[in-house]
Hints:
alpha/beta; 15 strands; two-stranded antiparallel sheet; 11-stranded mixed beta sheet; globular; Amidase signature (AS) enzymes
Amino acid sequence: MPSLHKLAAHQLLAMYRAGTLSPVEVTNAVIEHIERLNGSIKAFCLVDAERALDSARLSEQRWQAHRQSDAVVGGLEGVPVSIKDLILTRGWPTLRGSRTVDPSQSWDVDAPVTARLREAGAVLLGKTTTPEFGCKAETNSPLHGITRNPWNLSCTTGGSSGGAAAAVAAGMGPLAVGTDGAGSVRIPAAFCGNVGMKPSFGRVPAYPLSPFGTVAHLGPHTMSVIDCALMLNVMKQPDARDWFSLPFDSTDYTANLDQGIRGIRIAYSPTLGYAKVDPEVAQKVDDAVHVLQDLGAKVEQCDPGFTDPIDISVGLWFSVVHQLWAAMSPEQQALTDPDFQAQAAQGAHYTFTDIHRLQLRRAELGSMMRQFMQRYDVLVTPTVAVPAFEARAAGEAHFDAQQFLGWTPFSYPFNLTQQPAITVPCGLTTKGLPVGLQIVGPMFDDALVLRVARAYEAVKPVARPAI
């Protein structure tokens, strides 16, 4: 048997069911692994071993009752999970990577996703790191320092769910919850060699709603596509607090994962018509597309036809950061990340008319992609245009639109359009860094995105970093 911290969630559940492994054993092993590694990786900003073990003991009792009398167990019963520190979790502070948040206030509310995970029997380990208010695609902050990539500690995890991605990649829990406003699940999942999914907007209820509005999604970070489907089955359960949430979807996302992709119509866009892509990344993605073709998919290389919408994403994003900044006291403003300050300064220049025009252009993009997806089942691209680069401290680099998102041109368009998108690992560069393959589906067809990702994963299993 591999080390317990290397087991994926679906493997753990099978062994719990058979009685060959217990949640307490696994939780102890994962906590010990976190204690060994977190000092160098900084994936977690809070670990609550005592509560996690209490939860694991209750799960062990429920599994015993299940084996004896077929009592009901949760969909993630006894599986260790971490929560990104933007998401409310009862009993733990949610500091959002910021020194401006008072940790001493009452923390007595679970966000919908946290509540659903508890109900499903998941063992909550702690909170994972994020840049301040999830404001950028690198995970560093004045509060917690730099989160580092388990494949190479000198490299970034990406962000803003970098702690979640690093935790899963390093075996510090097989599942993690992230958020994605411009690629914040998919970017770090690609850099860290994980599966990461941004479901259709509204598929996973959120509360409180993100200040960044209708570009912000919640999604799973996992070791496998099977685990992603298991986790999404739990995360999508309804919650009336989110008035943007979709009607409940009763689909079991694990049911048709292995149905195959023969006849699936794939649009393959290596650059979306405008992106500059690292040659190694481009080659690995091209190789992966040939695998999909060998599996029976009908692949056509074509671009959707839109120009780079970076100015839409940046304008909508920076204007919100300015609103957050303006609501702070001067004392709080002085505590913030220099990158957050730079975004706020740029966001101050946008007028109401500017934002309205950007929203109209966003609507045009969304309509274009709805129409494009009538001709294809999925769109396939690189996830990120480059491999993981050198990890940097907050404020170390000059901050502008290109530094913010220019190197991840494949992620933010699909936050604007709200489509489901997943990244799966598709190989390593010559320097041993992961490359991600992105699969984008038509709005609401999360199941199809998972099915295509699983078809690839089934013949190209995910590699894990040597820790």
